[in-house]
Amino acid sequence: MAFHFRRLCYFPALLLVVIQLLHGVCGQLVVVEEPTYAPPPPLVVIEEPTSSPPPPLDVVNEPISAPPPPLDVVNEPISAPPPPLNVVEEPLSAPRPPLHVVEEPISAPPPPLVKQDGNDGIVPALFVFGDSLIDNGNNNNIPSFAKANYFPYGIDFNGGPTGRFCNGLTMVDGIAQLLGLPLIPAYSEAIGDQVLRGVNYASAAAGILPDTGGNFMGRIPFDQQIHNFQTTLDQMASKSGGPVAIADSVARGLFFIGMGSNDYLNNYLMPNFPTRNQFNAHQFGDLLVQQYANHLTRLYNLGGRKFIVAGLGRMGCIPSILAQGTDGKCSEEVNQLVLPFNTNVKTMISNLNQNLPAAKFIYIDITHMLEDIIANPAIYGVTTLDKGCCGIGRNRGQITCLPFETPCPNRDQYLFWDAFHPTEKVNLIMAKKAFAGDRTVAFPINIQELASLS
């Protein structure tokens, strides 16, 4: 009986492999410049009433058409079925203790942090919205193919797998530590007074557009993440003496938003989505940023005043994309595809700063950070740039990290943990740069400066 039960437990993982292989046969990455239909209307900042929040929405479950592997710094279909693989089993090293902020060069040393005991941080709270790059468990209990609540995910995290798509800490975890905050709980797990220090609403496969990620079935799109934040405001008010009492805490808190990768990888570039037949690259970038601005304005109307908006990384250089080529080089087609989005987000930041009173938005340039690591790997102690630490096939990116797969033992030397997401080492490098870096990585000011604003 025990033998058959173990076989049953592996069924979801085996199903995921079949789905990824079928997805590789059916979906070929094509970057197409389509006819230029009428572009979306100009960016308009929408003021929405701050009436009583609606009840939280249920997670959207959509029929699966042809799910790819889990996503995020990036993911994509493979262009052809992989040849028979010779998977090299490497010795599994013992889990190491969680890393703290990595020391690496920045343009100017940050001033000393104020408090870091988990109770008295630089800011009262941190609220997080995004996708699998910063999801810390919100997909664990929903019917979704985008999950990471199994070993070896979390191999270096104190407590094991949590739903983080990483071997350890995410970039947002590193930022919370630098702010002197405890690790921010997932919305699905936050209880009691925990909500007063912030909540993480991020969901793997989520996007700016509501249809994005539907091939993974369950996920929590950006608009529903905002509805969940409204529920948190009610919870905070019940513990802090009402809406007036929490208004100052929310206004002084930080809002971290990292969205957009899935709108390309699990929408625009997917053959079963109509968007690339409706919009060319520039039009699609305009559409995304217009919707992005609307969502951010909703958060402003709910009380947010200090916003950190992360741009997209070099999606053409992740293992899942590299595995589709034959020359081992990044896909410049994919990298160029997302340029209009990053450019428009920077413009959006300036517009929102001008149009929303007392608001301060900053932009974090993820592309610049990753380009610097790729150009100077020795400075950062990263030696492997083109393959995942955990994965199967070419570049260890054709099939992403599977349950109980043996990962590489030298994880701190890898840029990527799996086919799509950075290692803890790289996440903490980026957290430190975003927190105290110069204007090449944080514009117009960095996170530490934003947190210090009154």
UniProtKB/TrEMBL annotation:
Keywords: Hydrolase, Lipid degradation, Lipid metabolism, Secreted, Signal
Protein name: (rape) hypothetical protein
Single GO term (MF): hydrolase activity, acting on ester bonds
Chief place of localization: secreted
GO cellular component, one term: extracellular region
UniProt similarity note: Belongs to the 'GDSL' lipolytic enzyme family.
InterPro entries attached to this UniProt entry: GDSL (IPR001087), GDSL_esterase/lipase (IPR051238), SGNH_hydro_sf (IPR036514), SGNH_plant_lipase-like (IPR035669)
Originating species: Brassica napus (Rape)
Signal sequence region: 1-27
GO biological process: lipid catabolic process
Pfam (any one): Lipase_GDSL
Localisation: Secreted
PANTHER family on file: GDSL-LIKE LIPASE/ACYLHYDROLASE-RELATED, OS05G0419800 PROTEIN
